[in-house]
Specification:
The protein is 33% helix and 24% strand. It has 280 residues and is of the alpha/beta class. The chain has one domain: Alpha/Beta hydrolase fold, catalytic domain (Rossmann fold, 3-Layer(aba) Sandwich), CATH 3.40.50. It has a nine-stranded mixed beta sheet with strand order 1-2-3-5-4-6-7-8-9, sandwiched between helices. Helix 4 links the parallel strand 6 and strand 7. Helix 2 packs parallel to helix 9. The relative contact order is 0.14.
Length: 280
């Protein structure tokens, strides 16, 4: 494991780490913010952040505005990359932004040529948490998870399938029903094949309909998000949670789009929300 950079921020440390991944068969990069409390010797709660289409670990590291809040509340913040990368890693044949590199969709692909490297589910749910816990003072008994867009989809599905692991779950502009929108149909079909029954375990709305539950959920969407109606469809999550009795706080933020201006504005709210629940 190689530390690529070590930057002081708000009294803590912002690290960018590169390591060899058995899950993806490639070198993977993640960022981790260690608040000042990490110097005290005790283990701290961790907030995982899963990024969206075209992003790497760097987008939220550079634009997410989470450090001050994490320093205030003593939260470790970890942001992995969104796909395997490197020589020999398959990409979208047409070079489209919504499939292949930068668009792993947090699934373990079963279809060739993607099955060899695109094992992002195993990476974010098994390999990376074990690595981070072994190398840093992380309390895996106090984990929260959040994400944006494709990463919001990832955060919701990871939490719904591992409800005992996470004490808090939120999302920014998540793809809540990928089985029913163009981004998701392309990705799930390309990675998992055309049997839609196999897609359900990677679809938050379907998981809730099939019985998965969370204690509560915070979601922010921008009312000026141009992907809102065709790709995100928050009303489907709202309906599924209401039918299942899952407490959902869905905030529709007027004037905000899909960008990191939106995320950075409400990141402090989300960090505080997670911190309150991870102190319990």
């Amino acid at each position: 494991m190689d530390t690529l950079s070590d930057l002081k921020a708000h009294g803590g440390q912002q690290l960018v780490v590169k390591h060899d991944s058995q899950a993806t068969g490639t070198a993977m990069t993640f960022s981790i913010y260690l608040p000042p409390q990490a110097d005290g010797g005790g283990k701290l709660p961790v907030l995982w952040y899963l990024s969206g289409l075209t992003c790497t670990h760097a987008n939220v590291t550079e634009k997410g505005e989470y450090r001050a809040a994490c320093a205030e509340h003593g939260l470790i913040f970890v942001a992995p990359d969104t796909s395997p990368r490197g020589e020999g890693v398959a990409d979208d044949p047409a070079g489209a932004y919504d499939f292949g590199l930068g668009a792993g969709f947090y699934v373990d692909a079963t279809e060739e040529p993607f099955a060899r490297n695109y094992r992002m589910w195993t990476y974010v749910t098994e390999e990376l948490p074990a690595l981070v816990a072994a190398e840093f003072s992380v309390d895996l008994g106090r984990q929260g998870i959040t994400g944006h867009s494709m990463g919001g989809h990832g955060a919701l599905t990871v939490a719904l399938r591992n409800p005992d692991r996470f004490g808090s779950v939120s999302a920014f502009a998540p793809i809540v029903a990928p089985s029913r929108v163009p981004w998701g149909e392309k990705a799930l079909g390309g990675y998992l094949g055309q049997d839609r029954a196999a897609w359900r375990k990677h679809d938050a709305v379907a998981l809730i309909k099939d019985g998965a539950r969370l204690p509560e959920l915070l979601v922010d969407v921008g009312e000026a998000d141009n992907f809102l109606e065709q790709q995100l469809k928050p009303e489907l999550l709202e309906r599924a949670c209401a039918d299942a009795g899952v407490p959902l706080t869905l905030r529709r933020q007027p004037g905000y789009d899909h960008s990191y201006y939106f995320i950075s504005t409400f990141m402090i709210d989300h960090v505080r929300w997670h911190a309150e629940r991870l102190r319990r």
